[in-house]
Design brief:
Blueprint (H helix, E strand, L loop, with lengths): L5 H23 L14 H6 L14
The protein binds zinc ion.
The site of zinc ion has 8 residues, from loops.
Amino acid sequence: MSEFSNESVVAIENTLNNVDRALERLRGGTYRTCQACGTEIDQAELLKNPLLANCPAHPELS
Ligand SMILES: [Zn+2]
């Protein structure tokens, strides 16, 4: 009956969670720090994807 599939809801919730985490990192001063290895993430990458939490070496751990 709903025109929204569960997959869409999950995808939206994941995006919201990523936004929350990005804002927390921004407030905590670790916005540009890779969550896996501590490397500083390239600003150009963050401009392309503001929710990016990891350096290109750890894309699976966002
Ligand atoms: Zn990394």
